[in-house]
Amino acid sequence: MKRILVAGELNVDLVFRDCQAFPAPGREVLAEDALVVPGSSSMICAMGLARLGNPVAFAGKVGVDGWGGFCVSALQGAGIDVAAVRREPALRTGITASFSTSSDRALVTFAGAIGALRAADIDDALLAAADHLHVSSYYLQSALRPELKSLFVRAGKLGLSTSLDPGFDPEQRWGDEWHDLLAEVDLFLPNDVELAGISGCESMLDAMRALDNGRTRIVVKRGRNGCATLDGASKLIEAPAFAVDAVDSTGAGDSFDAGFLHAWLRGLSLTEALRWGNACGALSTRGVGGTARQADEAEAKALLGSAA
Length: 308
Known about the structure:
The protein has helices spanning 41-51, 66-77, 124-128, 148-157, 178-182, 192-199, 204-211, 252-264, 270-283, 297-306, and strands at residues 4-7, 11-19, 31-39, 56-63, 81-88, 94-100, 105-110, 132-136, 161-165, 187-188, 217-218, 220-221, 227-230, 236-239. It is an alpha/beta fold.
Protein backbone atom coordinates (compact mmCIF):
# COMPACT_ATOMS: atom_id res chain seq x y z
CA MET A 1 0.00 0.00 0.00
CA LYS A 2 1.18 3.51 -0.77
CA ARG A 3 1.98 5.72 2.22
CA ILE A 4 0.03 8.98 2.11
CA LEU A 5 1.01 12.30 3.71
CA VAL A 6 -1.81 14.82 4.10
CA ALA A 7 -0.59 18.37 4.70
CA GLY A 8 -3.32 20.68 5.84
CA GLU A 9 -5.61 22.40 8.28
CA LEU A 10 -7.30 21.03 11.38
CA ASN A 11 -10.43 22.36 13.03
CA VAL A 12 -13.58 21.19 14.78
CA ASP A 13 -17.16 21.50 13.56
CA LEU A 14 -19.91 22.45 15.99
CA VAL A 15 -23.05 21.19 14.28
CA PHE A 16 -26.48 22.53 15.29
CA ARG A 17 -29.07 20.41 13.47
CA ASP A 18 -32.67 21.13 12.54
CA CYS A 19 -32.78 24.67 13.91
CA GLN A 20 -36.21 26.28 14.11
CA ALA A 21 -34.78 29.15 12.06
CA PHE A 22 -31.40 30.77 11.49
CA PRO A 23 -30.16 32.94 14.38
CA ALA A 24 -30.95 36.63 14.02
CA PRO A 25 -29.92 39.65 16.10
CA GLY A 26 -31.83 39.78 19.37
CA ARG A 27 -33.33 36.30 18.92
CA GLU A 28 -32.65 32.86 20.27
CA VAL A 29 -33.59 29.71 18.36
CA LEU A 30 -33.57 26.08 19.40
CA ALA A 31 -31.88 23.18 17.61
CA GLU A 32 -33.05 19.56 17.70
CA ASP A 33 -29.50 18.24 18.07
CA ALA A 34 -25.92 19.44 18.54
CA LEU A 35 -22.66 17.61 17.94
CA VAL A 36 -18.93 18.26 18.04
CA VAL A 37 -17.23 16.48 15.14
CA PRO A 38 -13.88 16.51 13.32
CA GLY A 39 -13.81 19.21 10.66
CA SER A 40 -11.61 20.59 7.86
CA SER A 41 -11.25 19.20 4.38
CA SER A 42 -7.78 17.85 5.04
CA MET A 43 -8.80 16.05 8.22
CA ILE A 44 -11.91 14.51 6.65
CA CYS A 45 -9.91 13.26 3.64
CA ALA A 46 -7.18 11.84 5.87
CA MET A 47 -9.67 10.00 8.06
CA GLY A 48 -11.47 8.69 4.97
CA LEU A 49 -8.21 7.32 3.58
CA ALA A 50 -7.39 5.66 6.90
CA ARG A 51 -10.89 4.20 7.15
CA LEU A 52 -10.30 2.53 3.78
CA GLY A 53 -7.14 0.92 5.15
CA ASN A 54 -4.45 3.25 3.85
CA PRO A 55 -1.37 4.18 5.91
CA VAL A 56 -1.74 7.94 6.51
CA ALA A 57 0.40 10.60 8.20
CA PHE A 58 -0.78 14.14 8.87
CA ALA A 59 1.21 17.39 8.95
CA GLY A 60 -0.58 20.37 10.44
CA LYS A 61 -0.85 22.82 13.34
CA VAL A 62 -3.30 23.31 16.20
CA GLY A 63 -3.34 25.26 19.42
CA VAL A 64 -2.56 23.96 22.89
CA ASP A 65 -6.25 23.97 23.72
CA GLY A 66 -9.14 21.55 24.09
CA TRP A 67 -10.14 21.73 20.45
CA GLY A 68 -6.57 20.99 19.38
CA GLY A 69 -6.52 17.96 21.66
CA PHE A 70 -9.84 16.85 20.17
CA CYS A 71 -8.40 16.99 16.63
CA VAL A 72 -5.23 15.11 17.53
CA SER A 73 -7.20 12.44 19.39
CA ALA A 74 -9.57 12.00 16.45
CA LEU A 75 -6.65 11.47 14.07
CA GLN A 76 -4.99 9.03 16.44
CA GLY A 77 -8.25 7.16 16.88
CA ALA A 78 -8.40 6.70 13.12
CA GLY A 79 -4.90 5.19 13.13
CA ILE A 80 -3.22 8.23 11.56
CA ASP A 81 0.40 9.12 12.34
CA VAL A 82 0.33 12.53 14.09
CA ALA A 83 4.07 12.94 14.71
CA ALA A 84 4.09 15.94 12.33
CA VAL A 85 1.10 17.67 13.95
CA ARG A 86 2.44 20.58 15.98
CA ARG A 87 0.64 22.05 18.98
CA GLU A 88 1.73 25.66 19.45
CA PRO A 89 0.81 27.87 22.44
CA ALA A 90 0.58 30.99 20.26
CA LEU A 91 -2.18 29.45 18.12
CA ARG A 92 -5.86 28.79 18.72
CA THR A 93 -7.48 25.86 16.98
CA GLY A 94 -10.03 26.79 14.32
CA ILE A 95 -13.77 26.26 14.77
CA THR A 96 -16.68 26.12 12.32
CA ALA A 97 -20.24 26.40 13.61
CA SER A 98 -22.84 24.90 11.27
CA PHE A 99 -26.51 25.81 11.62
CA SER A 100 -29.00 23.78 9.59
CA THR A 101 -32.74 24.12 9.04
CA SER A 102 -34.96 21.80 7.04
CA SER A 103 -34.06 23.65 3.84
CA ASP A 104 -30.60 25.22 4.14
CA ARG A 105 -27.36 25.56 6.08
CA ALA A 106 -25.26 28.49 7.31
CA LEU A 107 -21.65 28.41 8.51
CA VAL A 108 -19.53 30.64 10.74
CA THR A 109 -15.78 29.96 10.92
CA PHE A 110 -13.02 31.18 13.21
CA ALA A 111 -9.92 30.38 11.19
CA GLY A 112 -7.46 30.25 14.06
CA ALA A 113 -4.55 27.92 13.23
CA ILE A 114 -6.04 26.91 9.87
CA GLY A 115 -3.64 29.12 7.89
CA ALA A 116 -0.50 28.57 9.99
CA LEU A 117 1.16 25.58 8.27
CA ARG A 118 4.17 26.45 6.10
CA ALA A 119 6.13 24.44 3.53
CA ALA A 120 9.17 24.62 5.82
CA ASP A 121 7.22 22.60 8.40
CA ILE A 122 7.28 19.68 5.94
CA ASP A 123 10.91 18.67 5.61
CA ASP A 124 12.40 16.26 3.11
CA ALA A 125 12.62 13.46 5.68
CA LEU A 126 8.85 13.67 6.21
CA LEU A 127 8.24 13.63 2.48
CA ALA A 128 10.67 10.76 1.93
CA ALA A 129 8.66 8.62 4.35
CA ALA A 130 5.62 8.88 2.04
CA ASP A 131 4.68 7.85 -1.48
CA HIS A 132 1.95 10.42 -2.09
CA LEU A 133 1.32 14.00 -0.90
CA HIS A 134 -2.23 15.38 -0.69
CA VAL A 135 -3.17 18.98 0.07
CA SER A 136 -6.69 20.38 0.57
CA SER A 137 -8.10 23.86 1.25
CA TYR A 138 -5.66 25.82 -0.90
CA TYR A 139 -7.37 29.14 -0.25
CA LEU A 140 -7.65 28.72 3.52
CA GLN A 141 -4.02 27.72 3.99
CA SER A 142 -2.69 31.25 3.70
CA ALA A 143 0.89 30.54 4.82
CA LEU A 144 1.27 27.39 2.71
CA ARG A 145 -0.40 28.77 -0.41
CA PRO A 146 2.49 30.91 -1.79
CA GLU A 147 4.95 28.10 -1.04
CA LEU A 148 2.88 25.20 -2.33
CA LYS A 149 4.51 24.96 -5.75
CA SER A 150 7.95 24.61 -4.17
CA LEU A 151 6.59 21.91 -1.84
CA PHE A 152 5.17 19.96 -4.77
CA VAL A 153 8.50 20.34 -6.63
CA ARG A 154 10.36 18.89 -3.63
CA ALA A 155 7.86 16.06 -3.36
CA GLY A 156 8.22 15.24 -7.04
CA LYS A 157 12.01 15.14 -6.81
CA LEU A 158 11.67 12.63 -3.96
CA GLY A 159 9.42 10.42 -6.08
CA LEU A 160 6.03 11.26 -4.58
CA SER A 161 2.87 11.64 -6.60
CA THR A 162 0.75 14.66 -5.66
CA SER A 163 -2.87 15.75 -5.43
CA LEU A 164 -4.64 19.02 -4.66
CA ASP A 165 -8.22 19.86 -3.70
CA PRO A 166 -8.52 23.67 -3.93
CA GLY A 167 -11.64 24.16 -1.86
CA PHE A 168 -13.74 27.31 -2.15
CA ASP A 169 -12.19 30.78 -2.24
CA PRO A 170 -14.06 32.84 0.40
CA GLU A 171 -12.95 36.04 -1.35
CA GLN A 172 -13.89 34.61 -4.77
CA ARG A 173 -10.79 36.08 -6.38
CA TRP A 174 -9.62 32.61 -7.47
CA GLY A 175 -6.21 33.86 -8.72
CA ASP A 176 -4.26 33.50 -11.94
CA GLU A 177 -1.50 31.16 -10.72
CA TRP A 178 -3.17 27.93 -11.67
CA HIS A 179 -1.41 27.05 -14.93
CA ASP A 180 1.95 27.44 -13.20
CA LEU A 181 0.93 25.55 -10.06
CA LEU A 182 -0.83 22.67 -11.79
CA ALA A 183 2.31 21.94 -13.79
CA GLU A 184 3.61 20.34 -10.57
CA VAL A 185 0.39 18.46 -9.63
CA ASP A 186 -0.62 14.95 -10.69
CA LEU A 187 -4.29 15.06 -9.57
CA PHE A 188 -6.50 18.14 -9.31
CA LEU A 189 -9.81 17.58 -7.50
CA PRO A 190 -12.10 20.66 -7.61
CA ASN A 191 -15.88 20.66 -7.53
CA ASP A 192 -17.81 22.24 -10.39
CA VAL A 193 -18.18 25.63 -8.67
CA GLU A 194 -14.47 25.80 -7.86
CA LEU A 195 -13.53 24.74 -11.39
CA ALA A 196 -15.65 27.51 -12.89
CA GLY A 197 -14.13 30.14 -10.61
CA ILE A 198 -10.55 29.04 -11.21
CA SER A 199 -10.89 28.68 -14.98
CA GLY A 200 -13.24 31.59 -15.65
CA CYS A 201 -15.30 29.29 -17.89
CA GLU A 202 -19.01 28.61 -17.45
CA SER A 203 -18.94 25.31 -19.32
CA MET A 204 -17.38 22.44 -17.36
CA LEU A 205 -15.89 20.96 -20.53
CA ASP A 206 -14.40 24.32 -21.56
CA ALA A 207 -13.03 24.77 -18.04
CA MET A 208 -11.28 21.40 -18.00
CA ARG A 209 -9.85 21.98 -21.45
CA ALA A 210 -8.65 25.45 -20.45
CA LEU A 211 -6.70 24.02 -17.50
CA ASP A 212 -5.51 20.85 -19.25
CA ASN A 213 -1.71 20.81 -19.37
CA GLY A 214 -1.10 17.29 -20.64
CA ARG A 215 0.07 16.10 -17.22
CA THR A 216 -2.48 16.86 -14.54
CA ARG A 217 -5.53 14.60 -14.21
CA ILE A 218 -8.46 16.92 -13.49
CA VAL A 219 -11.40 15.21 -11.78
CA VAL A 220 -14.46 17.38 -11.19
CA LYS A 221 -16.86 16.57 -8.36
CA ARG A 222 -20.48 17.29 -9.24
CA GLY A 223 -22.47 16.14 -6.19
CA ARG A 224 -25.67 14.40 -7.25
CA ASN A 225 -24.42 14.48 -10.85
CA GLY A 226 -21.42 12.29 -10.05
CA CYS A 227 -18.02 13.27 -11.39
CA ALA A 228 -16.21 13.87 -14.67
CA THR A 229 -12.77 13.96 -16.23
CA LEU A 230 -11.22 14.06 -19.71
CA ASP A 231 -9.88 11.21 -21.78
CA GLY A 232 -6.70 11.43 -23.84
CA ALA A 233 -8.57 13.14 -26.66
CA SER A 234 -10.02 15.84 -24.35
CA LYS A 235 -13.45 14.24 -24.47
CA LEU A 236 -15.66 14.04 -21.41
CA ILE A 237 -15.80 10.89 -19.27
CA GLU A 238 -18.60 10.92 -16.71
CA ALA A 239 -19.44 8.60 -13.84
CA PRO A 240 -22.91 8.77 -12.21
CA ALA A 241 -23.44 9.27 -8.50
CA PHE A 242 -24.73 6.55 -6.18
CA ALA A 243 -28.10 6.98 -4.47
CA VAL A 244 -28.11 6.55 -0.68
CA ASP A 245 -30.34 7.78 2.14
CA ALA A 246 -28.43 10.97 2.85
CA VAL A 247 -28.45 12.68 6.24
CA ASP A 248 -25.71 15.32 5.84
CA SER A 249 -23.50 16.13 2.86
CA THR A 250 -20.76 17.83 4.92
CA GLY A 251 -17.35 16.70 3.68
CA ALA A 252 -18.71 14.44 0.94
CA GLY A 253 -16.23 15.91 -1.54
CA ASP A 254 -13.36 15.13 0.82
CA SER A 255 -14.54 11.54 1.19
CA PHE A 256 -14.74 11.44 -2.62
CA ASP A 257 -11.06 12.45 -2.67
CA ALA A 258 -10.27 9.60 -0.27
CA GLY A 259 -12.10 7.05 -2.38
CA PHE A 260 -10.58 8.20 -5.65
CA LEU A 261 -7.06 8.28 -4.21
CA HIS A 262 -7.55 4.85 -2.62
CA ALA A 263 -8.28 3.36 -6.05
CA TRP A 264 -5.87 5.49 -8.09
CA LEU A 265 -2.90 4.73 -5.83
CA ARG A 266 -3.61 1.02 -6.25
CA GLY A 267 -3.43 1.29 -10.02
CA LEU A 268 -7.12 0.65 -10.69
CA SER A 269 -8.52 1.91 -13.97
CA LEU A 270 -9.67 5.51 -14.30
CA THR A 271 -13.29 4.39 -14.53
CA GLU A 272 -12.99 2.36 -11.34
CA ALA A 273 -11.27 5.23 -9.51
CA LEU A 274 -14.12 7.56 -10.47
CA ARG A 275 -16.65 5.03 -9.17
CA TRP A 276 -14.71 4.58 -5.92
CA GLY A 277 -14.76 8.34 -5.42
CA ASN A 278 -18.50 8.51 -6.03
CA ALA A 279 -19.18 5.56 -3.73
CA CYS A 280 -17.15 6.92 -0.81
CA GLY A 281 -18.59 10.40 -1.24
CA ALA A 282 -22.14 9.04 -1.21
CA LEU A 283 -21.63 6.71 1.75
CA SER A 284 -20.18 9.51 3.87
CA THR A 285 -23.54 11.35 3.77
CA ARG A 286 -25.21 8.66 5.94
CA GLY A 287 -24.16 10.41 9.18
CA VAL A 288 -23.80 13.90 10.61
CA GLY A 289 -20.47 15.57 9.92
CA GLY A 290 -17.80 14.49 7.49
CA THR A 291 -16.37 11.48 9.33
CA ALA A 292 -19.16 9.75 11.28
CA ARG A 293 -20.16 7.33 8.52
CA GLN A 294 -17.22 7.23 6.15
CA ALA A 295 -16.99 3.97 4.27
CA ASP A 296 -14.56 1.19 4.97
CA GLU A 297 -13.31 -0.88 2.05
CA ALA A 298 -15.97 -3.58 2.46
CA GLU A 299 -18.83 -1.06 2.47
CA ALA A 300 -17.50 0.71 -0.60
CA LYS A 301 -17.06 -2.59 -2.46
CA ALA A 302 -20.60 -3.62 -1.54
CA LEU A 303 -22.06 -0.42 -3.00
CA LEU A 304 -19.87 -0.70 -6.09
CA GLY A 305 -20.94 -4.31 -6.56
CA SER A 306 -24.63 -3.52 -6.17
CA ALA A 307 -24.44 -1.03 -9.04
CA ALA A 308 -22.18 -3.06 -11.32
